[in-house]
Write a structure and sequence with these properties.
about 60 residues, 3 helices, mainly alpha, about 0% strand
């Protein structure tokens, strides 16, 4: 998810995206433990997306 895409979202949509991404990250961790993860890069990408959205929320609130 790019900055431009994040800026277009409302605060509620950003919060919903964070919840969804956290669930995805949780599932990726289980897949990693079980050796079923297809793309380990997805874990890192998901973490970065969560951080980007949180950063945009903080900037807007400041």
């Amino acid at each position: 998810m790019k900055k431009k895409e994040i800026k277009k979202l409302t605060k509620q949509q950003k919060l919903e995206n964070i919840v969804k991404l956290k669930k995805d990250l949780f599932n990726f961790r289980f897949q990693k433990v079980n050796g079923q993860v297809k793309s380990p890069a997805k874990i890192t990408e998901t973490k970065k997306n969560i951080a980007r959205i949180k950063s945009m929320l903080e900037v807007k609130n400041a």
